[in-house]
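Why should sequence recovery work at all? Because a backbone constrains its sequence more than one might expect. Tight turns favour small or flexible residues, buried strands favour hydrophobic ones, and helices have their own preferences. The token representation captures these environments compactly. In the example below, the structure is given first.
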């Protein structure tokens, strides 16, 4: 099977995330946020996945749970993959703060 992977000018595969259409699930979530906050979803945000994702991030309600600041499962899994491949331990405080985990991931990619 041949894969159609677009190549950038440098020969690397390009990241076409910004060209992908919004998903139904993403649009439903954006509409629920818009209804709760009495806001309109901008027309330009309805056309591509990244724009709508940015709008959702800016307008979603803040979680007041004590676990809201913990890293996501995807963050932890990605950090653990990096940790195994680079043979570097993840500091324990990173498991209690998503921003610290994000910084650790950025520094160790």
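From this structural description, the recovered sequence reads:
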């Amino acid at each position: 099977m041949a894969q159609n992977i677009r190549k950038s000018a440098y020969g690397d595969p390009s990241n076409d995330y910004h060209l992908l259409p919004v998903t139904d699930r993403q649009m439903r979530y954006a509409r629920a946020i818009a209804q709760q906050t009495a806001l309109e979803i901008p027309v330009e945000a309805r056309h591509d996945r990244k724009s709508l994702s940015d709008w959702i991030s800016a307008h979603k309600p803040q979680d007041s749970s004590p676990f809201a600041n913990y890293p996501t499962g995807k963050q932890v899994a990605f950090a653990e993959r990096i940790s195994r491949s680079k043979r570097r331990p993840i500091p324990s405080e990173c498991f209690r703060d998503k921003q610290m985990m994000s910084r650790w991931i950025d520094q160790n990619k």
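A few observations help interpret the result. The chain has four helices and no strands.
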